[in-house]
């Protein structure tokens, strides 16, 4: 009798841990963007946040969803992709709204101009939405044609997770260009690091496709490189600290 009760308790505990882990995977990825979103809204300044981060995550998660048509993976990872796509569109909407409000005299650029020099630097949110929809339709069509090819499916999976692994590189490059991490939410990067570490462990424990955990490790390395930039540029400033009315997210800590 005692063994039966113990087995039931262990089963219930296992189910609870499984549900918590699944919820953490689904929603944990978007949590780091909450402090960055709040900082941009409060300061009405989006210069410290690279919108190419949104581009990387949109491409990666669209490709991951398409990859699932060729090779099954855990359902929480699918929902994570859906939630992340919605979150990145919300971030883009905010950034474009702030830019349009602060750059009134700048010439408007749109996706339909097809000017490569202004790719992902358009004036309106609708232009970003058009680009995302065009990419989704094109990628879905190619996937439909080549879905029977194992090589294509595996390459698609690798491209999806490798693109996501490069998530931090736009921010890394933005910080390098600015010689500062001012305007970037340090809380966001700390949450990236903890979330990517948890996610990589989840991939290993659930025996996810090998592409997932290899690129997860790469993602953690990029996160650590950004944290090193925070330390280096704060200890060895490359330019005078701005004293404008904008309160930077780096001061949040």
Automatic annotation (TrEMBL):
Protein's membrane topology: Multi-pass membrane protein
Keyword Iron appears in the UniProt entry: no
Keyword Glycoprotein tagged: no
GO cellular-component term (any): trans-Golgi network
Alphabetical UniProt keywords: Membrane, Repeat, Transmembrane, Transmembrane helix
Pfam families found in the cross-reference section: PQ-loop
Gene Ontology biological process terms from the UniProt entry: phospholipid translocation; retrograde transport, endosome to Golgi
Organism superkingdom: Eukaryota
Location of the protein in the cell: Membrane
Transmembrane residue ranges: 16-34, 46-66, 78-98, 119-144, 211-233
InterPro entries in the record: PQ-loop_rpt, SLC66/Scramblase_ANY1
Protein name as it appears in the record: Solute carrier family 66 member 2
Organism: Cyprinus carpio (Common carp)
């Amino acid at each position: 009798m005692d063994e039966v009760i113990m087995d039931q308790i262990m089963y219930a505990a296992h189910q609870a841990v499984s549900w918590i882990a699944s919820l953490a995977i689904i929603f944990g990825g978007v949590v780091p963007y909450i402090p960055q979103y709040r900082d941009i809204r409060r300061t009405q300044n989006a210069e410290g946040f690279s919108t190419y981060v949104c581009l990387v995550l949109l491409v990666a998660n669209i490709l991951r969803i398409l990859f699932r048509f060729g090779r099954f993976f855990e359902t929480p990872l699918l929902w994570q992709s859906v939630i992340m796509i919605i979150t990145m569109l919300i971030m883009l909407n905010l950034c474009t709204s702030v830019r349009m409000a602060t750059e009134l005299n700048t010439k408007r650029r749109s996706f339909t101009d097809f000017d490569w020099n202004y790719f992902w630097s358009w004036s309106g949110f609708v232009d970003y939405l058009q680009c995302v929809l065009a990419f989704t339709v094109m990628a879905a069509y190619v996937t439909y044609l080549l879905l029977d090819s194992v090589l294509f499916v595996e390459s698609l999976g690798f491209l999806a997770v490798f693109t996501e692994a490069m998530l931090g590189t736009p921010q890394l490059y933005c910080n390098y260009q600015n010689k500062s991490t001012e305007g970037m939410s340090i809380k966001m990067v700390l949450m990236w690091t903890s979330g990517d570490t948890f996610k990589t462990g989840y991939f290993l424990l659930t025996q996810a496709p090998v592409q997932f955990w290899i690129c997860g490790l790469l993602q953690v390395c990029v996160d650590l490189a950004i944290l090193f930039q925070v330390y280096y540029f704060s200890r060895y400033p490359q330019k005078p600290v701005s004293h404008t009315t904008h309160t930077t997210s780096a001061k949040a800590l």
